[in-house]
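Thread: Newbie trying to understand structure tokens

Hi all, I'm a second-year student working on a class project, and my supervisor (Dr. K.) asked me to get a predicted structure for one chain before our next meeting. I've only ever worked with sequences, so writing a 3D structure as a token string is new to me. If someone could post the tokens and maybe explain what I'm looking at, I'd be very grateful. Here's the chain:
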Amino acid sequence: MDQEVILARTREVGTGAAKALRRNGQVPAILYGKDIDSVPIALDSKEMRKILSQSMGHVHKIKVEGLGLEGSVMVQAIDRDPITGNIIHIDLHKISMTDVVKVEVPVIVVGEEKLAEQGLVLERLVREISVECLPGDIPNEFVIDVSDLQVGDTILVGEIEVPEGVKITTPPDEVVVVVSVPRMVLEEEEEEEEELEIEILEGEEVDEPEEL
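---
Reply by user tm_fold:
Sure, no problem. This is what the structure looks like when written as tokens:
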């Protein structure tokens, strides 16, 4: 797995200092790990683009200017402003490449357009799958092909192929996707069945002989 190098610098702590960073287009962050003390750092927009271009489970190399601190990190949390959606803080976890980590890997679906051509609907129930592995073995994504699925077909977590050294911790019986027909079609079929039942019942009433 390729590792992007994230350049950071130390920063002052406090609400005022954090606001000043954001006004200058930078994002306050915290770097921590089991072998270091927590380090308040700042990232500029270029470095943030490197982080946001990858999934949360991606491993980056970090270099903190002025401290001589380097290592591998993963994004632990991203805080956003509830109104604007802008990133206001990020947590980076310094890890060891020889220690097993637990991360969420996104599920990518291909072939959905084939189902749409048949008037079918794909319901996505699981969008991320939990795995345990060494940082260097973290998959970027799990790709599943749904183009050959039919109505009622499902793909379970346990049916997804994983690379060697990767262990899925999400329950294997969880449904990732299921194929169904649009609700409107179901309602039309139910209406047709009801109309047919009514016609049958009315026909039986007409044919019923009169009692003497």
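A couple of things are worth pointing out once you decode it. The chain is about 25% helix and 40% strand. The chain has two domains: 4-97, 102-182. Feel free to ask follow-ups in this thread.
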